[in-house]
Design the sequence.
């Protein structure tokens, strides 16, 4: 099952981090878990990239609203 959203993927990374810190990941599990983590990082980065673009667009819209001369 592939996690779709940022929070799902971030949770995968948090879980893996905790498992690694607690020594719960065997050598046999390490490569598949790291591949899963790599995919989760890619998804998170892409979501953040798109979110940043959308926020810049919204910021531009707000600036346009406040910079337009008001009609009286």
Sequence:
């Amino acid at each position: 099952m592939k996690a779709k959203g940022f929070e799902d993927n971030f949770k995968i990374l948090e879980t893996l981090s905790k498992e690694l810190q607690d020594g719960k990941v065997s050598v046999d599990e390490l490569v598949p878990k790291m591949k899963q983590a790599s995919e989760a990082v890619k998804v998170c980065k892409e979501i953040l990239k798109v979110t940043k673009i959308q926020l810049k667009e919204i910021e531009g819209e707000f600036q346009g609203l406040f910079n337009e001369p008001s009609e009286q």
